[in-house]
């Protein structure tokens, strides 16, 4: 029995009254060729589409939006496409992270301000998933997330290529002189063979999978390769299901609890997730309300308990997301790790996560491992704390050389990315593989936008000696497709006077991942003396969006949302007046 009636549909406030304003709404809809039979008594569904001509991850969304519309119409709804900022990861500078919150704001206001009853969110490229979900959570209407899906495997001379991961790998070989220019161009042409997101377990695949584990997409939706025929069928299914959700009044508040977010964290660990998962999932949870909020400690607790069982690069050694799909995808992985899940958590299907995965199967036990045969015994991420990062820092131990998990070495400090980039190409740089490269002024305010600079390149001098990993520390993020002993998200960031701003070249830094410690080996007195001499840098922006960003962005451990967008900031926004 529907919980909503035709009269109680939100869109009816715009279309049904016998007054002049509603006359205007109806007549303008008729101007576009629609008639009362299109909207009257039907749920109006917003399709928030992040397609653009310059976003290769979403190339297929031009067609997929039509598939969603087909599903909405099949279920008796009225679909309307509402385009949103696209955030093409490869092209937007200085970083798409600068604009994630802009997409969240746009999504929230698109849903709230239009005559819609529910929404389908079309995303996948790294920041689009959290941005869309954050905004839709704040809007509070029923919604379902449609993931873009990964691209096909890359190929070069019969070798399987993984986006991002093999770019870094072969670039080092190019810098070392082991790959010619012609070969490098062949790699360029073979690494991205179709539309869709990165097919490694980068941030895109991580966030699509996390959103499914949260219960906000259809079971299995996050694993389907973008070019697969199952993808348009899934898109139509999203259209059908959102209409049902509107009638059921299945809002995010009725779906989400802290259990959903803890399930998502556990799934992230088992996936071998991107380090970016921490920032995005914390931000999403804080939009869902204080009863749903998760913290760095929740990630570290899960890391101690949940092993990495998805053998997907870069944490894995061989497979990519296409293989993960053939092996059973996200439902199969969740079934395999079911002892770490709360099976009562609700989902957009109207069923619990336990019910959704009940009949899932693993078809390749090397791609999706068992808990007692993991590819890494603990979770993908670890949270480190100490006098250099009292607010926390993050490392992905499953994707770095084991010898760096307990290490003391001298710092080699860079104040900017250009300084670092110039220095590492100097073959006379005074550096060894025991050094810890330190990049600062790359955090939320300092970057600006916390760019993915955290996978600092290995100095060319060392690359030519065969070195392929070393410890690197920054207040930046790194691509989820990256790998190596990179310590990221050091907080508070150096740009606002965090301890990273006080490190000098030659200072010893100790890292102990098992003990979850990172320590600058100087006295508290010396640290305080340096702090007293610290001078704040010049502001990055004096006007515009960047000015607003700089004044309202939160630090990494709080999800880098704007303070005024969080649920706790003020009273819920009421329905818009219609006059």
Radius of gyration: 24 Å
Overall average pLDDT: 96
**Binned strand content:** 5-15%
Q: Mind describing the biggest β-sheet?
A: 8 strands, mixed
Low-pLDDT sequence parts: none
Number of separate helices: 21
Net shape: globular
Strand order, largest beta sheet? 7-8-12-11-10-9-13-14
Distance between the termini: 33 Å
Tell me the helix content: 25-40%
Q: Using DSSP, what is the number of strands?
A: 14
Structural category is alpha/beta
Layout of secondary structure:
Layout: H1 12-15, H2 20-31, H3 36-39, E1 44-49, H4 61-74, E2 78-83, H5 100-113, E3 118-123, H6 128-139, E4 143-147, E5 154-156, E6 159-161, H7 165-175, H8 181-190, H9 203-214, H10 230-248, H11 252-255, H12 258-271, H13 276-288, H14 296-305, H15 321-326, H16 329-336, H17 353-356, E7 382-386, E8 389-395, E9 406-414, H18 417-424, E10 436-439, H19 460-463, E11 472-474, E12 486-491, E13 508-512, E14 517-520, H20 524-533, H21 544-552
Parallel strand pairs: 1-2, 1-3, 3-4, 9-10, 10-11, 11-12
Antiparallel strand pairs: 5-6, 7-8, 8-12, 9-13, 13-14
Structure description:
The protein has 21 helices and 14 strands. It is of the alpha/beta class and 579 residues long. Strands 7-8-12-11-10-9-13-14 form an 8-stranded mixed β-sheet. α12 runs antiparallel to α13 (276-288). The two termini are 33 Å apart.
Describe the structure concisely for a colleague:
The protein has 579 residues and is an alpha/beta fold.
Key descriptive features of the protein:
579 residues; alpha/beta; eight-stranded mixed sheet; four-stranded parallel sheet; 21 helices; 35% helix; globular
């Amino acid at each position: 029995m529907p919980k909503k009636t035709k009269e109680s549909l939100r869109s009816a406030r715009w279309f049904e009254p016998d007054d002049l304003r509603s006359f205007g709404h109806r007549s303008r809809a008729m101007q576009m060729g629609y008639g009362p039979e299109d909207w009257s008594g039907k749920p109006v569904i917003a399709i928030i589409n992040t397609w653009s001509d310059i976003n290769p991850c979403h190339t297929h969304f031009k067609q997929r939006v039509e598939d969603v519309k087909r599903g909405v119409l099949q279920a008796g709804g009225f679909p309307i496409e509402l385009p949103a900022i696209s955030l093409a990861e490869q092209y937007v500078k200085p970083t798409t992270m600068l604009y994630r919150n802009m997409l969240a704001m746009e999504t929230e206001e698109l849903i709230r301000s239009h005559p819609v009853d529910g929404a389908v969110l079309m995303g996948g490229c790294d920041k689009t998933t959290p941005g869309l979900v954050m905004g839709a959570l704040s809007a509070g209407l029923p919604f379902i997330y449609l993931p873009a899906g990964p691209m096909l495997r890359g190929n070069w001379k019969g070798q399987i290529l993984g986006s991002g991961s093999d770019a870094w790998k072969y670039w080092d070989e190019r810098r070392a002189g082991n790959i010619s220019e012609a070969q490098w161009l062949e790699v360029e042409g073979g690494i991205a063979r179709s539309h869709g997101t990165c097919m490694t377990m980068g941030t895109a695949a991580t966030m699509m999978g996390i959103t499914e584990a949260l219960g906000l997409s259809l079971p299995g939706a996050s694993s389907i390769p973008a070019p697969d025929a199952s993808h348009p069928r899934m898109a139509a299914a999203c259209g059908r299901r959102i209409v049902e959700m509107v009638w059921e009044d299945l809002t995010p508040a009725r779906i989400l609890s802290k259990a959903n977010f803890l399930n998502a964290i556990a799934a992230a660990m088992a996936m071998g997730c991107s380090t970016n998962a921490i920032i995005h999932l914390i931000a999403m949870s804080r939009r869902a309300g204080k009863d749903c909020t998760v913290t760095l400690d929740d990630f570290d607790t899960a890391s101690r308990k949940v092993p990495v069982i998805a053998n997907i690069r870069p944490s894995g050694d061989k497979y990519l997301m296409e293989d993960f799909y053939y092996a059973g995808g996200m439902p199969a992985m969740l079934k395999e790790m079911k002892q770490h899940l709360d099976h009562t958590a609700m989902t957009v299907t109207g069923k619990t996560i336990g019910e959704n995965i009940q009949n899932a199967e693993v078809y390749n036990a090397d791609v999706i491992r068992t808990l007692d045969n993991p590819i890494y015994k603990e979770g993908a991420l670890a949270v480190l704390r100490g006098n250099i990062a009292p607010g926390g820092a993050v490392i992905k131990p499953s994707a770095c050389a084991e010898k760096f998990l307990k290490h003391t070495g001298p710092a080699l400090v860079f104040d900017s990315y250009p300084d670092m980039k110039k220095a590492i190409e100097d073959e006379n740089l005074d550096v060894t593989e025991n050094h810890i490269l330190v990049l600062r002024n790359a955090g939320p305010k300092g970057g600006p936008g916390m760019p993915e600079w955290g996978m600092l390149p290995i100095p060319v001098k060392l690359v030519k000696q065969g070195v392929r990993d070393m410890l690197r520390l920054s207040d930046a993020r790194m691509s989820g497709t990256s790998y190596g002993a990179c310590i990221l998200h050091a907080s508070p960031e150096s740009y606002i006077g965090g301890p990273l701003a006080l490190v000098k070249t030659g200072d010893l830094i100790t890292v102990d991942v098992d003990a979850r410690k990172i320590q600058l080996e100087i006295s508290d007195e010396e640290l305080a003396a340096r702090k007293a001499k610290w001078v704040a840098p010049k502001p990055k922006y004096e006007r515009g969006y960047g000015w607003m960003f700089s004044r309202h962005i939160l630090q990494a451990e709080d999800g880098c949302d704007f303070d005024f967008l969080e649920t706790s900031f003020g009273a819920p926004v009421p329905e818009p007046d219609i006059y």
